[in-house]
Amino acid sequence: MKLFLKISILLGFLLAVHSVELSAQTDVANDYVLTVGNEAVTLSDFQHIFGKNNRDSVITREALDEYMELFIKFKLKVLEAESLGMDTVAEFKKELAGYRDQLARPYLVDMDLLDELVLEAYNRQQEEINARHILVSLKPDALPEDTLRAWRRISKLKARIAAGEDFTAVAKSKGGSDDPSAVDNGGDLGWFTAFQMVYSFENAAYNTPVGELSDIVRTRFGYHVLQVNGRRPARGEVQVAHIMIRVPDATKKPMLMSAKATIDAVYDFIKAGESFESLALKYSDDATTASKGGVLPWFGTGKMVEEFENASFALKNDGDVSEPFLSSYGWHIVKRLGFKAPASFDDVKRQLKKKVSRDSRADITRSSFLHKLKDEYNFKMDSRRVAHLETAVSHTDSVFYKGHQIENVKKSELGKTLFSIDGNDKTVQDFLDFAARQKPRGLNRPSKTILKALLHQMVEESLLAYEDARLEEKHSDFRLLIEEYHDGILLFELTDTKVWSKAVKDTVGLEQYHERNAELFMWPERVDIAVYTCEDEKLAKKVQKAVKKNKDIEAMRRELIAERPLAIRIESALYPEGVNNWADTVFAAIKDGSFKMTTKAPRFISLSVGAEGIVLIDVRELVPPTPKSLKEARGQVIASYQDHLEKEWIMTLRRKYPVKINKEILYSIINLED
User: What is the CATH number that goes with domain 522-627?
Assistant: First the structure.
């Protein structure tokens, strides 16, 4: 709850503020709209903050004054937190660093390329591809000789197809596709769309014309060659319920026909008007959905076997039911429950951006961004130093385990520059220290290959760290955002200590505040009533007499409850207007003069409520407005006490930190907007 409240504050009023500390010589003329203590806020930054919180409001002097007052309170609290050293505490620094890491991520990718990939993914999702492929397996870290062998093999397979051999026959042939499913499907992948294949494979599929072979493509699984069989517009998504009669072995005709007889009988029941849901519960062999009336989650292309997808998407209207059809699982009947056409770009843009960021496409944006950083920061790698390192590792075994130092590097090399970023040098020794901290994968690879990967990793991390350290100076929106979180965390922690938690924990102070301000926590006029709902008129008269004689009606109810559980129902309390219907009936009767309070008791209002029985309302007392006890008003008192504590605190801070507003500059925002 505390974290949620803190984040709410961070994303609410506590927006970025650029403050500068003033020296005795600083000329605070028209540059600053506000000074609080020794800190000042520029007009441009205040305008940014005000505009962010008042996008659709008409800017007036009154609006500026009102917002300025809120802003001053905010700045006073932050200044006090800083003066107490709260921004130097390790826990604060750790929390702010965590937020900064999250906020920096969008700035450490090629955003232009990311937007292009998002749009590309959306456009591809508007079309579905049907293709088949042949795979020659190859590990991502394969040795050069294995890579060459795999390349030659996939090239020969492609050449056979190009020469006229049947694709399916080649895929199934000895030495053909390494995809285990090719034995059954000849490499047929069915229909798919964006994000359902690895990106390089997807590219080959979408860039190959129907009926043609693709170029050879490398994925993390190995080398592929594709043939595109067809394209069609995206189908969208559908939700269906289904009834399935399983066929364990469709090659056995008696088993197949027995299941067919069952599904046909179920279909006849549906046509006769029986409930699809109840039939699913009774007959369906799909245990995961039968108890839910056969309902399946929403799905699109590539999620179900093709026969099931085709039957589901063929249904034109919600409620339509298919005829029985056969899939590799058995016989099915499906009922359409809903349909969603492909979404618009605006509707899915945010979701697609997340997908692209998690997909292998992210490697492309990262590589592009790093390439731009190398150009921007004049990155240089000394190839001679790299060659010396390659020589050193080629003569040493087991040097890449975590904690091991690469040996055989000449001492004269250690201080030499390996690479530089914006004139900042990283030495050979820096790399050796970096390598000793790593535990690279694929230790069976050649030492030079591992060395190259470690160098690449160090360069990437160094470039990103260098860029990360400069985000505030390069991107003013990022600087303002970090200041927003910095100030927000401080404000939350100090306000919690001074106001929120204090009001809850300060029992004595809370009690004293309640006593001094009892008039703030009043009950309105209330009626003290007892409501008796009786089964019939005879029982109502009996209850009425019993009340007049001050007898125990609850005891009467208990005597009757065994045989007549609803003979008497009792409701008794003190109610203000607008809380209880029976009490409101009393207030209305008093107002219209149909009921008058007297000193004589009991004072009944009798109502006939039909099937529920007879209602007797005993109006015991009309209670004038009275103070609430602390227990009755605890939530209200705490909230009011918090407001009181904050006002006193702000007054103290105003005395401690002088506030000056340049009204002329402040009101110039109105003219700037015009």
Answer: 3.10.50
Residue type at 126 in one-letter notation: Q
Residue 602 confidence class, pLDDT cut points 50, 70, 90? low
pLDDT band at 562; cut points 50, 70, 90: confident
- Distance from C-alpha of 176 to C-alpha of 179, rounded to nearest angstrom: 9
**What ranges do the domains of the chain cover?**
1-83+478-520+632-674, 127-233, 237-340, 377-468, 522-627
* Topology alike, domains 237-340 and 522-627: yes
pLDDT tens track for 454-497: 999 999 999 999 999 999 999 988 988 898 899 999 999 999 99
Name the more confident of 48 and 120.
120
List the CATH code of the domain at 237-340.
Answer: 3.10.50.40
Task: Give the C-alpha separation, 213 to 162, whole Å.
Answer: 8
3-state secondary structure 338-383: EEECCCCHHHHHHHHHHHHHHCCHHHHHHHHHHHHHHHHCCCEECH
**CA end-to-end distance (rounded Å), the chain:** 43
Per DSSP, what are the bridge partners of residue 136?
223
The mean pLDDT of the chain is 88
Query: Which residue spans within 7-106 are E strands per DSSP?
Result: 19-21, 32-36, 39-42
Which of 555-592 are b and which e, b meaning 16 or more Cβ less than 10 Å from the residue's Cβ? ebbeeeeeeeeebbeeeeeebbbeebebbebbbeebee
Q: What is the pTM of this model?
A: 0.66
What CATH class has 127-233? alpha beta
